[in-house]
Design a protein that fits this description.
Layout: H1 20-24, E1 29-33, H2 35-41, H3 44-53, E2 55-59, E3 65-70, H4 73-76, E4 84-87, H5 89-94, H6 96-111, H7 120-130, E5 140-142, H8 152-158, H9 164-174, E6 177-179, E7 184-187, H10 189-197, E8 201-206, H11 217-234, E9 239-244, E10 253-254, H12 255-265, H13 270-278, H14 281-301, H15 306-316, H16 320-329, H17 331-346, H18 354-372
Parallel strand pairs: 1-4, 1-8, 4-5, 8-9
Antiparallel strand pairs: 2-3, 5-6, 6-7, 9-10
Helix pairs in contact: 6-7, 8-14, 9-11, 9-14, 10-11, 11-14, 13-14, 14-17, 16-17, 17-18
Amino acid sequence: MRSWGLSEKPGKYKWVMLEKAYLKVFQMPVAKINGLDAIKTRGESLGILLELVGAAPVKEGTGRIVRYDLMPLAEVGHPRIDVLANLSGIFRDSFVNIVELLDDLFRRATEADEPEEENFIRKHGLALRSQGVDNVSARLFSNPAGDYGSLVNDQVVDGNWESGDELANTWQSRNVFSYGRQDKGQARPEVMEQLLQSTSRIVQEIDSVEYGLTDIQEYYANTGGLKRAAEKQGGKTVNASFVESFSKDTTPRKLEDLLRLEYRTKLLNPKWAEAMANQGSGGAYEISQRMTALIGWGGTADFQDNWVYDQAADTYALDEEMAKRLRQANPEAFRNIVGRMLEANGRGFWEPDHETLQKLRELYDLADEKIEGVTAVG
């Protein structure tokens, strides 16, 4: 895949390879485009989008990209794949010129004189126009102008949600705002709804070995929330794939596989657990964060593998020495660790045996008493 985005310097880019057959099944994928990732990789996430659409940059004499041109279908080698681009607030605000160039690209793709079966952007645009929708080529969506975040993570952290559909509604309501040459944050819920209904896959680039899907809340809050929203609108499972640009193997990997790998290598890794416990308060907080993210992925992506909760409980709660160290180092973090396990059971994500459940309740009460300063008398 040609990584053409913010700029282009031959030899500086990795090539991300997607099988042609893989591309052909995409009528409507979603590309997640984050600002910091785009900066660090010099636009590789945009390369994913351009490859799907079948476009290439046009540069002026100084090397600055001034336009994205549609490549002839014969050169593209696959149909033009429609893309709903979900932009982070940082990307939206930092690269207004790129947003406008991409918006112009989608407008021309919608108007291209090409067969609908070879240009899904045009196909979906015509369908939207027949419904009287304004700006049928709107494909670049983000949060309200000047605002950031999906707020899904706030709901998960606070525990004030009843179902995954509620998280989906939150994500969608926060990301219906269109950007480009015409739109400057106009809410277009009718376009977003139609695009989500036909979404078949989510594609996102990961460029960091330090921060993964289980490390920070934003991944489930944005990618997970998007996945749930698309499934709610379309009534079918939507697969999410991630391209690890830091690796030599850039084959797209499934969300579920990456989550299992990360939980094995971090949260459930005895060496990682010991290292976090040795860090005291900060380490306990890191463990706590990952337990919250586990709930977030359960609510947004239905990731509910019992073995993850089983081993987490054995490692951080049922091991008396570890539980004591964490409770003493950071009582609030320890209460959250245990509390998320109890929450997982309450939400139907995990089914521990009665003895384990009772022990967790006792540990939660003990941590609560320590935080409240309650001591037993007599």
